[in-house]
Amino acid sequence: MKYPLAFGLGETPSLPKQERSRRTREKLIQAAAQLFEERGFEKTTSNDIAAAAGVSIGSFYAYFSDKRQLLLLLFEQRLAERLDAVFSNFTEEDLIGNDLRGCIERCIHRTFVNKAETPGLTRLIYDLASKDEAVGALCRRLMDDSVQNLAALLRKAISLNLTSLDDPWVTATTIVYAVEAVARKCVLEDELPEPAWKPYILCLTDMTYSFVFGRQARPTCR
Question: Residue 15: which region, alpha, beta or left (left: phi > 0; alpha: psi -120 to 50)?
Fold first, then answer.
Protein backbone atom coordinates (compact mmCIF):
# COMPACT_ATOMS: atom_id res chain seq x y z
CA MET A 1 0.00 0.00 0.00
CA LYS A 2 1.34 3.42 -0.94
CA TYR A 3 0.33 6.52 0.95
CA PRO A 4 0.06 9.98 -0.66
CA LEU A 5 2.80 12.51 -0.07
CA ALA A 6 0.41 15.43 0.34
CA PHE A 7 -1.27 15.78 3.72
CA GLY A 8 -3.44 18.72 2.75
CA LEU A 9 -1.25 21.51 4.10
CA GLY A 10 -1.43 23.54 0.90
CA GLU A 11 2.34 24.16 0.87
CA THR A 12 3.63 21.33 -1.31
CA PRO A 13 5.25 22.75 -4.48
CA SER A 14 4.14 21.17 -7.74
CA LEU A 15 6.29 18.51 -9.39
CA PRO A 16 8.14 19.83 -12.49
CA LYS A 17 7.08 18.35 -15.82
CA GLN A 18 10.54 18.06 -17.37
CA GLU A 19 12.77 15.15 -16.34
CA ARG A 20 15.83 17.38 -15.97
CA SER A 21 13.94 19.71 -13.65
CA ARG A 22 12.68 16.77 -11.60
CA ARG A 23 16.26 15.53 -11.19
CA THR A 24 17.42 18.95 -10.05
CA ARG A 25 14.57 19.19 -7.58
CA GLU A 26 15.39 15.74 -6.22
CA LYS A 27 19.05 16.70 -5.80
CA LEU A 28 17.95 19.65 -3.68
CA ILE A 29 15.70 17.43 -1.56
CA GLN A 30 18.46 14.88 -0.97
CA ALA A 31 21.02 17.57 -0.18
CA ALA A 32 18.64 19.18 2.29
CA ALA A 33 17.94 15.82 3.93
CA GLN A 34 21.64 15.24 4.51
CA LEU A 35 22.33 18.75 5.80
CA PHE A 36 19.28 18.82 8.08
CA GLU A 37 20.35 15.42 9.42
CA GLU A 38 23.90 16.57 10.12
CA ARG A 39 23.46 20.23 11.09
CA GLY A 40 19.81 20.72 11.97
CA PHE A 41 17.45 23.29 10.49
CA GLU A 42 18.75 26.56 11.93
CA LYS A 43 22.38 25.96 10.92
CA THR A 44 21.47 25.04 7.35
CA THR A 45 20.93 27.81 4.82
CA SER A 46 19.37 27.78 1.39
CA ASN A 47 22.83 28.57 -0.02
CA ASP A 48 24.23 25.50 1.75
CA ILE A 49 21.56 23.31 0.20
CA ALA A 50 22.12 24.68 -3.28
CA ALA A 51 25.89 24.22 -2.98
CA ALA A 52 25.55 20.66 -1.71
CA ALA A 53 23.20 19.87 -4.60
CA GLY A 54 25.62 21.40 -7.09
CA VAL A 55 23.19 24.03 -8.37
CA SER A 56 22.94 27.81 -8.16
CA ILE A 57 20.92 29.58 -5.50
CA GLY A 58 18.72 30.84 -8.32
CA SER A 59 17.90 27.23 -9.18
CA PHE A 60 16.98 26.63 -5.53
CA TYR A 61 14.43 29.44 -5.61
CA ALA A 62 13.05 28.17 -8.90
CA TYR A 63 11.72 25.13 -6.99
CA PHE A 64 11.27 26.27 -3.40
CA SER A 65 10.29 29.57 -1.81
CA ASP A 66 12.61 28.96 1.16
CA LYS A 67 14.22 26.17 3.16
CA ARG A 68 11.11 25.73 5.31
CA GLN A 69 9.00 24.79 2.29
CA LEU A 70 11.65 22.24 1.31
CA LEU A 71 11.71 20.94 4.87
CA LEU A 72 7.94 20.43 4.88
CA LEU A 73 8.09 18.54 1.58
CA LEU A 74 10.90 16.40 2.96
CA PHE A 75 8.87 15.65 6.09
CA GLU A 76 5.86 14.74 3.96
CA GLN A 77 7.93 12.29 1.96
CA ARG A 78 9.59 10.71 4.98
CA LEU A 79 6.36 10.35 6.96
CA ALA A 80 4.50 8.81 4.03
CA GLU A 81 7.39 6.40 3.43
CA ARG A 82 7.46 5.41 7.09
CA LEU A 83 3.74 4.75 7.19
CA ASP A 84 3.99 2.57 4.11
CA ALA A 85 7.03 0.72 5.46
CA VAL A 86 5.20 -0.22 8.65
CA PHE A 87 1.88 -1.33 7.20
CA SER A 88 3.37 -3.14 4.21
CA ASN A 89 4.37 -5.74 6.80
CA PHE A 90 0.78 -6.36 7.91
CA THR A 91 -2.17 -6.53 5.53
CA GLU A 92 -5.65 -8.03 5.68
CA GLU A 93 -4.30 -11.14 3.94
CA ASP A 94 -1.82 -11.64 6.78
CA LEU A 95 -4.70 -12.01 9.24
CA ILE A 96 -5.45 -15.48 7.88
CA GLY A 97 -1.83 -16.43 7.30
CA ASN A 98 0.41 -18.68 9.39
CA ASP A 99 2.64 -15.96 10.80
CA LEU A 100 0.33 -13.44 12.40
CA ARG A 101 2.57 -12.86 15.39
CA GLY A 102 5.56 -12.45 13.10
CA CYS A 103 3.72 -9.80 11.10
CA ILE A 104 3.05 -7.84 14.28
CA GLU A 105 6.69 -8.12 15.33
CA ARG A 106 7.92 -6.91 11.93
CA CYS A 107 5.60 -3.88 12.07
CA ILE A 108 6.88 -2.93 15.49
CA HIS A 109 10.51 -3.49 14.48
CA ARG A 110 9.99 -1.30 11.42
CA THR A 111 8.77 1.54 13.66
CA PHE A 112 12.08 1.37 15.52
CA VAL A 113 14.07 1.21 12.27
CA ASN A 114 12.23 4.24 10.87
CA LYS A 115 13.58 6.35 13.70
CA ALA A 116 17.09 4.92 13.55
CA GLU A 117 17.57 5.46 9.82
CA THR A 118 17.65 9.25 10.14
CA PRO A 119 17.84 10.07 13.86
CA GLY A 120 18.85 13.69 13.32
CA LEU A 121 15.95 14.37 11.00
CA THR A 122 13.55 12.50 13.27
CA ARG A 123 14.64 14.55 16.27
CA LEU A 124 14.19 17.68 14.18
CA ILE A 125 10.63 16.63 13.36
CA TYR A 126 9.82 16.11 17.03
CA ASP A 127 11.47 19.39 18.02
CA LEU A 128 9.62 21.45 15.42
CA ALA A 129 6.27 19.72 15.95
CA SER A 130 5.55 21.86 19.01
CA LYS A 131 6.83 25.08 17.39
CA ASP A 132 5.67 24.90 13.78
CA GLU A 133 1.96 24.38 13.12
CA ALA A 134 2.50 22.67 9.76
CA VAL A 135 5.07 20.23 11.14
CA GLY A 136 2.80 19.48 14.08
CA ALA A 137 -0.06 18.81 11.68
CA LEU A 138 2.10 16.36 9.72
CA CYS A 139 3.01 14.46 12.88
CA ARG A 140 -0.60 14.29 14.01
CA ARG A 141 -1.65 13.09 10.56
CA LEU A 142 0.95 10.31 10.68
CA MET A 143 -0.35 9.09 14.02
CA ASP A 144 -3.99 9.43 12.95
CA ASP A 145 -3.37 7.49 9.74
CA SER A 146 -1.51 4.80 11.69
CA VAL A 147 -4.45 4.42 14.06
CA GLN A 148 -6.94 4.34 11.18
CA ASN A 149 -4.99 1.64 9.35
CA LEU A 150 -4.60 -0.53 12.44
CA ALA A 151 -8.24 -0.05 13.42
CA ALA A 152 -9.28 -1.21 9.92
CA LEU A 153 -7.20 -4.35 10.38
CA LEU A 154 -8.75 -4.99 13.78
CA ARG A 155 -12.27 -4.54 12.39
CA LYS A 156 -11.41 -7.09 9.71
CA ALA A 157 -10.12 -9.45 12.39
CA ILE A 158 -13.42 -9.09 14.26
CA SER A 159 -15.36 -9.90 11.09
CA LEU A 160 -13.25 -13.05 10.67
CA ASN A 161 -13.92 -14.06 14.29
CA LEU A 162 -10.23 -13.84 15.11
CA THR A 163 -10.85 -11.54 18.06
CA SER A 164 -13.76 -10.31 20.13
CA LEU A 165 -12.51 -6.78 20.83
CA ASP A 166 -15.30 -4.36 21.72
CA ASP A 167 -13.63 -1.20 20.47
CA PRO A 168 -10.99 -1.55 17.71
CA TRP A 169 -10.40 2.21 17.62
CA VAL A 170 -9.44 2.40 21.30
CA THR A 171 -7.25 -0.67 20.93
CA ALA A 172 -5.55 0.71 17.81
CA THR A 173 -4.92 4.07 19.46
CA THR A 174 -3.39 2.44 22.54
CA ILE A 175 -1.12 0.14 20.52
CA VAL A 176 0.08 2.82 18.09
CA TYR A 177 0.93 5.34 20.80
CA ALA A 178 2.55 2.71 23.04
CA VAL A 179 4.81 1.49 20.24
CA GLU A 180 5.66 5.05 19.25
CA ALA A 181 6.61 6.00 22.82
CA VAL A 182 8.80 2.94 23.44
CA ALA A 183 10.52 3.24 20.05
CA ARG A 184 11.20 6.91 20.64
CA LYS A 185 12.73 6.23 24.05
CA CYS A 186 14.89 3.30 22.91
CA VAL A 187 16.17 4.80 19.67
CA LEU A 188 16.29 8.55 20.24
CA GLU A 189 16.48 9.09 24.00
CA ASP A 190 18.54 6.10 25.18
CA GLU A 191 20.23 5.65 21.78
CA LEU A 192 20.29 1.88 22.15
CA PRO A 193 21.97 -0.18 19.41
CA GLU A 194 19.63 -2.33 17.35
CA PRO A 195 20.39 -5.64 19.16
CA ALA A 196 19.25 -4.00 22.41
CA TRP A 197 15.82 -3.22 20.93
CA LYS A 198 14.82 -6.88 20.83
CA PRO A 199 13.42 -7.32 24.35
CA TYR A 200 11.30 -4.20 23.98
CA ILE A 201 10.02 -5.26 20.57
CA LEU A 202 9.22 -8.75 21.85
CA CYS A 203 7.40 -7.32 24.86
CA LEU A 204 5.31 -5.01 22.68
CA THR A 205 4.62 -7.90 20.30
CA ASP A 206 3.56 -10.24 23.08
CA MET A 207 1.29 -7.63 24.64
CA THR A 208 -0.35 -6.82 21.30
CA TYR A 209 -0.75 -10.38 20.12
CA SER A 210 -1.99 -11.69 23.46
CA PHE A 211 -4.46 -8.87 23.97
CA VAL A 212 -5.90 -8.91 20.48
CA PHE A 213 -5.61 -12.54 19.45
CA GLY A 214 -5.23 -14.41 22.75
CA ARG A 215 -6.86 -17.84 22.78
CA GLN A 216 -8.07 -17.58 26.34
CA ALA A 217 -11.00 -15.46 27.60
CA ARG A 218 -11.20 -12.50 25.28
CA PRO A 219 -10.36 -9.16 26.92
CA THR A 220 -12.29 -6.00 26.18
CA CYS A 221 -11.29 -2.37 25.90
CA ARG A 222 -13.90 -1.21 28.38
Answer: beta
104-150 pLDDT tens trace: 999 999 999 999 998 998 999 899 999 999 999 999 999 999 999 99
- The CA–CA distances, whole Å, from 35 to 26, 27, 112, 120 equal 14, 12, 22, 10
* Residue 182's CATH number: 1.10.357.10
Helical segments of 45-118, H only: 46-53, 57-63, 67-87, 100-117
Burial 52-62 (b: 16+ CB within 10 A, else e): bbebeeebbee
- How far apart, in whole angstroms, are the C-alpha atoms of residue 7 and residue 149? 16
Q: Over the stretch 7-33, which tens digit does the pLDDT of each residue have? A: 344 455 656 667 888 899 999 999 999
pTM metric for this prediction: 0.82
Amino acid at 173: T
Rg (CA), the chain: 20
What domain range is 44 assigned to? 19-64
Give the DSSP H or E segment for 169: helix 168-183
**3-class SS at 170?**
helix
What backbone torsions phi and psi does residue 217 show, to the nearest 5 degrees?
-55, 125
CB burial readout 147-156, b (16+ within 10 A) else e: bebbbebbbb
* DSSP at 208: H
Asked if residue 151 lies in contact with residue 168, where contact means CB atoms within 8 angstroms, the answer is: yes
Decide which of 46, 64, 82 is a domain's last residue: 64
